[in-house]
Q: What sequence folds into this?
């Protein structure tokens, strides 16, 4: 499947951003900055296609710089292009020694400098659009989505690490600090903010589009760089979401100031949340969310963009644009539970993609999940995320499935950096974890004590393993809490 999509992109789509798989031609979508070429490169490496990976890097190296008079999305360019360049560079340095010239890093740095123009000096919050030659376009709206401003820290942080220039991470961290300071008394964020006035322009709060990857980057940035600032942001925001946005297992939109229901809708973009919960150690909630999503794909071929969970009706958004989030969470839950049902579910979705979306020139998105009408677009993330996560699901022993890799929101793997604070502590004896003093009135205390100990004594990777281990256990330490009754379903009661 991957090579059918990839080869047809190179034949009919390149050098444009994407392939139109029905009309068999390229199309400009994101400023014609080689989106699919760069976004999908590291998928070749993960699949072990080293010759094609090396050839693709050679093609990318022909790009001298990004001095292009085109307006681009800060968010999309960062996660697809900058993330793709950094990941391909790191992998090539490890796997193509003696072949790779190292030219992707200067190219990434050139792009990073141009993306820095989006930041407003006064507030620290970036604009959502930037011209790669001239900076922020004249008359550009200062309103930016929350995820757009808060999903920079992985790529900017790694660029800082590789270039020894802290400017990029400092900018991402400042934006996060400023926006988090504008949270409500419920610790909820809105979904759009004015980068000049620092005022919220949209106060609906949830985990779907315009907010989703912000939470993801809070945790993953901590796991990669070990800065407790990001960990605290994640813990506080995650707690607030589960307390105020989760209604009987369905995450909907609420008013950030009051916590009251704004819109009882489920978005397919929310499907990433279960995978994030696994990464955070909350496997029990993650499996519950997977159960609910299984209800939708048992009656529909794919998750639609939006569903009203109060009346079980579709909104006007009935499309499936080849999104990866559902499969991403399948992979995470499988890694935590080793339940073969996740592989079976992944295979079923792959078969549906092949049967319903394959065209002569690639794979198309679905315009309407009810009648399977196709749309003439093959998204770059279909190659960089959807098929990549499927491949990793079916290849559990793949080296890129290891805990030393953290995936960006565009599925670009970045290595976890050494925890220097932990290394400096290793010269001192490490105390034993608490095993006693269990409060009989609190059956979970022993778990919390061990998790607290592991956070204090272990590096990010070890802490994640320990937390996952104990979140899988029953209070008495026996068995696992993996919901197997896929037929169970409870309609949410939205009365708050």
A:
């Amino acid at each position: 499947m991957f090579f059918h999509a990839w080869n047809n992109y190179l034949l009919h789509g390149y050098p444009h951003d994407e392939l139109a798989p029905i009309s068999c031609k390229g199309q400009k979508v994101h400023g014609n900055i080689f989106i699919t070429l760069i976004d999908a490169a590291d998928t070749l490496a993960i699949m072990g296609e080293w010759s094609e990976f090396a050839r693709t890097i050679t093609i990318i190296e022909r790009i001298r710089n990004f001095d292009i008079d085109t307006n681009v999305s800060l968010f999309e360019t960062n996660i697809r292009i900058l993330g793709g360049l950094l990941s391909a560079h790191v992998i090539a340095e490890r796997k193509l020694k003696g072949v790779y010239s190292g030219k992707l890093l200067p190219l990434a740095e050139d792009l990073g400098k141009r993306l820095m123009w989006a930041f407003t000096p006064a507030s620290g919050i970036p604009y959502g659009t930037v011209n790669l030659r001239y900076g922020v376009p004249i008359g550009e709206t200062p309103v930016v989505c929350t995820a757009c401003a808060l999903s920079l820290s992985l790529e900017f942080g790694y660029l800082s690490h590789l270039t020894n220039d802290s400017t990029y991470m400092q900018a991402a961290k400042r934006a996060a600090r400023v926006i988090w300071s504008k949270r409500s008394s419920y610790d909820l964020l809105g979904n759009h903010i004015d980068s000049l006035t620092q005022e919220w322009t949209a106060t609906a709060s949830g985990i779907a589009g315009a907010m989703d990857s912000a939470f993801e980057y809070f945790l993953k940035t901590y796991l990669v760089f070990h800065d407790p600032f990001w960990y605290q942001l994640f813990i506080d925001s995650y707690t607030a979401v589960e307390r105020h946005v989760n209604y009987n297992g369905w995450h909907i939109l609420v008013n950030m100031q009051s916590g009251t229901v704004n819109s009882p809708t489920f978005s397919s973009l929310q499907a990433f949340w279960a995978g994030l919960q696994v990464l955070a150690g909350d496997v029990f909630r993650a499996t519950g969310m997977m159960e609910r999503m299984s209800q939708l794909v048992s009656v529909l071929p794919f998750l639609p963009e939006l569903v009203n969970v109060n009346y079980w009706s579709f909104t006007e958004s009935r499309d499936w644009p080849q999104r990866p989030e559902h499969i991403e969470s399948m992979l995470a839950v499988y890694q935590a539970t080793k339940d073969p049902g996740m592989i079976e579910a992944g295979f079923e979705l792959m078969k549906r993609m092949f049967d319903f979306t394959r065209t002569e020139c690639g794979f198309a998105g679905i315009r309407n999940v009810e009648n399977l009408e196709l749309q003439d677009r093959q998204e770059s993330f279909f190659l960089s995320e959807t098929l990549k996560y499927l491949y990793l699901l079916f290849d559990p022993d793949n080296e890129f499935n290891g805990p030393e890799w953290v995936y960006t929101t565009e599925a670009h793997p970045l290595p976890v950096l050494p925890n220097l604070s932990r290394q400096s502590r290793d010269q001192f004896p490490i105390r034993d974890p608490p095993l006693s003093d269990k409060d009989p009135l609190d059956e979970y205390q022993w778990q919390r004590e061990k998790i607290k100990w592991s956070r204090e004594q272990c590096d990010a990777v070890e802490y994640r393993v320990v937390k996952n281990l104990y979140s899988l256990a029953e209070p008495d330490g026996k068995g696992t809490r993996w919901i197997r009754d896929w037929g169970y379903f409870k309609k949410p009661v939205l009365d708050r």
Notes: The two ends are 46 Å apart (CA to CA). The chain is about 45% helix and 10% strand.
